[in-house]
Amino acid sequence: MFGIKYNNLTYPLDANVVPEHTFFEKVNNAIVNNNGKTYIHCGSGKKRTSVCVAVYEKSHTLKTDGQIISNVLKTGFEELNHGKYGPKRDKLLHIFKDLAKKYFPEHFN
């Protein structure tokens, strides 16, 4: 319908950790092989979407790591900047640290 091609790539079940690179290879291949604009959406939350976009940008754009990390903090992990302390913020921090460790280790030890 309307020339829209839909790809369903299931994010691994444990949303509390960032998937391994093999998952993002599938996502990135779908984006690269798409002839047109690509929209990424996760029905379970925007943190997954921003993680997918960050890993794509790291591999396929000229954006700096700082720009990518800044976008992650603006688009899926805003509460780390100004949210209340508590279990939800702790969960987001855990996921953000996992993303940083796996994909931006030179900036986060």
Produce the secondary structure layout.
Blueprint: H1 21-32, H2 46-60, H3 65-75, H4 79-82, H5 87-103
Commentary on this structure:
The protein is mainly α. Helix 2 (46-60) runs antiparallel to helix 3. The chain contains 5 helices and no strands. The protein has helices spanning 21-32, 46-60, 65-75, 79-82, 87-103. The mean pLDDT is 85. It is globular, with a radius of gyration of 14 Å.
Q: Alpha-carbon distance between the termini?
A: 47 Å
pLDDT < 50 runs, ≥5 residues: none
Name the beta content range: under 5%
**Helix tally?**
5
Average per-residue pLDDT, rounded, comes to 85
Outline:
globular
Sequence of secondary-structure elements: HHHHH
Query: What is the number of E strands?
Result: 0
State the share of residues found in helices, binned by percent.
40-55%
Rg value: 14 Å
Structural class: mainly alpha
> What composes the largest sheet?
none
